[in-house]
Design goal:
With 681 residues, the chain is α+β, with helices and mostly antiparallel strands. It has 17 helices and 35 strands.
Length: 681
């Protein structure tokens, strides 16, 4: 099995072969995103691999940079500006800012410019009736306008189409007649759910992704075939579940934000192996720190996610919070003369100053190199020699009155503080006590920075898993293959509603069975999103019993709602009626997962000894005369450690693609799968 995670700075590739994990890390190339994927795959060898699991931020980057194809948007007449209005929500920091504009509005950078958004005369009522029919003559005229503008795809979202799709289906036929065989997404297929704006934004993203990923997928499949791959190419979706590439291209909006979710799944899988079901997960890469929560062995899953503020996509997604804190985060001087770190990043090009690629501004990587945490000779497996003098010059060029020692020390403390604040905020937001949770540190820079956050986050311990620099990619070898169907149907839960609910679930399960192999082992999981009658917002993922839905099953659904509502809100209102809004089915297929071999224990004649000792500069007393005053730290090779080894900090543990820094006052214990468990002394 092979998996690849295309990140903002590096593309991580892992292969599981004969029980051993093989890894490769290649710099991401924004001019040709498939190039590092194929380069890493070729380095590990793809012959004989039966699956190639892929997660990428390719589509997300296209949205963020607005390097998008030209598409048209068809809405019910009078509603074409729904994409500009959004949900009319402001972020908290912009509540009092009269100049704030949403990033995708017409005054900023719209996904579809207003002249390409056309109104169509038709109207479906909320109960699915036809108030007045589709005006085909007017629709053809609007499509002729789009043809003259040279659109390459079309997104269609008509009012109440989720309860009656006939007008959208006919309009799609007209698109074929006028525009030819261009990609066309209709909301009643893409996202047949209530709430018009989120359905519209999801449909637009789907149409864009069909165009963006079509060439990408074709290039990737051909490139893999050229180097000998003959197995199944799978894409990971926003919940890091796997979908065959041909099925993923039917609804590519689901794969637009797949990379960060894979690390959460990897953490949950590894946590189950080491007996830690409650986890705070932090993936510190070159550009950002992605933070998520796992409780009881299950990631937090949302029914929607945002690509940008208020730019919503209706897809099940692991809840991941990203902050601008990584190895490439830039060290700058604020307006008040203070040291700041991030959120800007040097990226992979030119990269940190110490890379010697033309970067002149210091970064967190330069900071850790100056301190001595990073070994310039073995960084990135020895493929990239770091230049300490370039890092020193970058710090000296900062316009500040601070001494060099203060600049480096404060930059380190700010980098650690930013990550600690982000992790703590996510814990509090999700209502969990970090003292009961283990912090999983991964990403190339995670083991280097996260142990230092332990006292600020107040977590139980920090665990560095095997291969932390490519741990998210390993998550793609820990994921299930899942197909999902959902439908909105406002239904007050009463015994009389049972036949309609049963027909809805039967239809969705039948459709899902048609999408999987007949001999596959499939488990169907039912749930619904509901609310108390009169409420505006739903409580998601309320369990639904299997089998035929009768009066007893409806009673169980009502009881499950009140239990879930009480668990989430702390309140319970048994006497109030419950209304189901969205009904959902997940078809989960048995999937082979990565196994982590157990590490042998040290024999009685084997001695644990460091490879050398280094001085960690600038971590000691800054008032000392010598800038080199600091801490003595023993350096160990991770490959030489054995299960049960215990080492007192300060300690540096080096491996090919990552560095772990255990601070003073901390103790390192090696677990049975080779994980590094860091606790307070």
């Amino acid at each position: 099995m092979i998996a690849v995670d295309v990140g903002g700075t590096f593309t991580d590739v892992v292969a599981l072969r004969d029980g051993a994990i093989h890894t490769a890390k290649v710099s991401t190339d924004y001019t040709d995103v498939t190039k590092p994927v194929l380069e890493g795959a070729a380095a590990l060898g793809v012959e004989g691999s039966h699956v190639f699991n892929h997660a990428s931020t390719h589509g997300l980057n296209a949205v963020i940079t607005r390097r998008l194809p030209k598409i048209g948007f068809l809405a019910t007449e009078g509603h074409r500006d729904i994409l500009d209005m959004g949900r009319v929500w402001r972020p908290a920091e912009a509540m009092l800012d009269p100049h704030w504009r949403r990033s995708f509005g017409d005054a900023a950078r719209p996904l579809v410019p207003r002249y390409l958004r056309r109104g169509i005369r038709e109207r479906i009522t909320a109960d699915g009736g036809v108030l007045f029919g589709l005006d085909e003559t007017q629709a053809r005229a609007e499509l002729e306008v789009l043809r003259g503008c040279g659109v390459t795809g079309v997104a269609i979202c008509l009012i109440n189409a989720y309860v009656n799709r006939t007008h959208e289906e006919r309009l799609r036929e007209l698109v074929r007649e006028v525009l030819g065989d261009v990609p066309c997404s209709i909301s009643s297929e893409v996202s047949p759910l209530a709430k018009e704006y989120t359905r519209a934004s999801t449909t637009v993203v789907d149409a864009l992704m069909k165009l963006i990923y079509a060439d990408y997928t074709a290039t990737l499949e051909k490139g893999l075939a050229d180097i000998g791959f003959t197995g199944q190419l799978n894409f990971a979706d926003c919940a890091a579940t796997l979908v065959p590439s041909n099925r993923a291209m039917e609804q590519p909006f689901r794969i637009v934000f797949s990379g960060p979710a894979a690390g959460t799944v990897a953490s949950a899988h590894f946590g189950s192996l080491i007996g830690e079901p409650d986890l705070l997960c932090a993936d510190v890469g070159g550009t950002s720190c992605d933070i998520s929560v796992v409780t009881g062995g299950e990631p937090y899953v949302d029914t929607t996610f945002e690509l940008e503020h208020d730019l919503v996509v209706n897809a099940l997604a692991n809840e991941v919070t990203a902050i601008g804190a990584g190895g490439g985060s830039l060290v700058t001087i604020g307006q008040s003369g203070e040291i700041r770190v991030g959120p800007g990043s040097a990226g992979s090009t030119p990269g940190p100053a110490c890379y010697g690629r033309g970067g002149t501004r210091p970064t967190t990587t330069d900071t850790c190199l100056m301190i001595g945490i990073i070994d310039p000779e073995t960084f990135a497996g020895g493929k990239l020699n770091l230049d300490v003098e370039q890092a020193r010059a970058a710090f000296k060029n900062l316009r500040t009155e601070f001494t060099l020692a203060q600049r480096v020390r404060y930059a380190y403390e700010m980098a650690v503080h930013n990550i600690a604040e982000g992790v703590f905020n996510v814990a509090i937001k999700n209502g969990v006590d970090p003292r009961d949770y283990t912090l999983i540190a991964y990403g190339a820079a995670g083991p280097m920075l996260l142990p230092a956050t332990m006292d600020a986050v107040h977590c139980k311990q920090v665990v560095v898993p095997p291969n932390p620099g490519l741990f998210s990619a390993l998550g793609l070898l820990s994921a299930d293959q899942v197909f999902t169907a959902n439908r909105s149907a406002y239904t007050v839960l009463t015994p009389e509603a049972a036949p309609g609910i049963d027909a809805l679930f039967t239809e969705m399960e039948t459709r899902l069975r048609e999408r999987v192999d007949s001999d596959a082992t499939v488990t169907f999981e039912r749930s619904y999103d509901g609310h108390l009658v009169g409420q505006s917002w739903e409580t998601p993922f309320v369990p639904v019993p299997a089998g035929a839905v009768d009066a007893d099953a409806v009673a169980a659904m009502i009881a499950s709602f009140h239990d879930t509502y009480q668990e989430r809100s702390g309140n319970r209102f048994d006497t109030l009626p419950v209304e189901g809004v969205t009904f959902r089915v997940r078809a989960v297929l048995d999937t082979e997962k990565v196994e982590y071999p157990e590490l042998p224990r040290r024999g009685p004649d084997e001695q644990l000894a460091p490879t050398r000792t280094v001085r960690l500069r600038y971590l000691g007393d800054l008032d000392a005369i010598d800038d080199d005053a600091g801490q003595e730290a023993a350096v160990y090779d991770r490959a030489a450690l054995r299960a049960g080894d215990e080492i007192e900090g300060p300690v540096i543990v080096n491996e090919r693609l990552s560095t772990t820094h255990v601070g003073a006052g901390q103790r390192l214990v090696v677990g049975r799968h080779g994980e590094l468990v860091i606790r307070r002394k």
